[in-house]
Amino acid sequence: MLIQEALYIRLTEDAGVSAAAIGGVWAGVIKQTVTYPAVAYRRVSHETAERLQSRGHSGIALHRFRFFSTCNLAAGGYDSAKALDEAIRLSLHGFAGVVTDDSVSPPATLYVNGIFQQSSFDMYDDPTQTYQVISDYDVWAEEVQPTP
Residue 147 domain-assigned? Predict the structure, then answer.
């Protein structure tokens, strides 16, 4: 399982995020016809951690993901975008453990070593009248090792 799939599962199975993200959780960008509030996420950087004692891949990688909690004025505006961002923080920040995808056979799993919020900032887009709370998270997780 890829880390972005694990994050999707974690967020969509969280009751707080599901209640706040009426328009859903989207990889990449939010569709224009979505009901707000909604969240989109995408990976903005990736680093592999190398083993120091013997050169090679450690099996762990650091991913930086950016989450865009978005809401228009008609659906609650700034307060709803902030509430969605907080639901995501409560679901992700400090999480470590196994994420399982039961929709495939056999079930796929991924061990997440830790997720930590790094920064957050607020934006408003006048043409679309949408508020966004944008938060970055560092995600340490196992990664398939390349074959020699």
Answer: no
